Amino acid sequence: MKTVELLAIIISLSSAFFFSNAANTNQPPNQVTSQPIQQPATDGDFEPVDNMHHFMEYICEPSYKGLKQVLATEPADRKAWKAFKNHALVLAESSALVAARGPEDEAKNKQWKAISADVYQSGKSLYKSAGNYSEAKKHYGTMLDACNRCHTVFAKGKYQLSK
């Protein structure tokens, strides 16, 4: 290898090193930074981690139980309404995830999405009803009715939720 070629490689590598570190001058030394994904994310990048039953059990059930407890009596203060909003938001947002994980069968998936839309809309209304106990109870009941309708159709009637 000629000296000129070797020198060009060294300069190229040095420049690459300098410019890659110049963008991170506010980073502490030796800190690992994440690199952006070079390819755009696709739906295939977001496959379910576990089955729907576990999703419901570990994500939705704690918030369902939390709301049931919060709404047993009218929330007395801001802290109680904050707990309400936490649980309501988890259920509303997770219903959007549930909608995207329907059955492969086209007819069943259409029904899945329709029921999921009802759960989502009632969950969204539930979240927005924070501070109004009678509205919160109404939307909570509407949401549970939609959840139970889905459980009836897709889980053979198991896992019915009580108000």
SSE succession: HHHHH
Oligomer, anyone? single chain
Distance between the termini: 79 Å
Rg, rounded, reads 25 Å
Write down the CATH class of one domain. Answer: Mainly Alpha
Short note summarizing the structure:
By secondary structure, the chain is mostly helical. The chain contains 5 helices and no strands.
Can you walk me through this structure?
The protein has 163 residues and is mainly α. The protein has a domain of 89 residues: Four Helix Bundle (Hemerythrin (Met), subunit A) (Up-down Bundle). 65% of the residues lie in helices and 0% in strands. The protein has 5 helices and no strands. Helix 2 runs antiparallel to helix 3 and helix 3 packs antiparallel against helix 4. The longest helix is centred in the last third of the chain and has 23 residues. About 4% of the residues have low confidence.
Give descriptors for this structure.
single chain; 163 residues; mainly alpha; Four Helix Bundle (Hemerythrin (Met), subunit A); globular
Compile the SSE list and pairings.
Blueprint: H1 3-22, H2 52-70, H3 78-99, H4 106-128, H5 133-154
Helix pairs in contact: 2-3, 3-4, 4-5
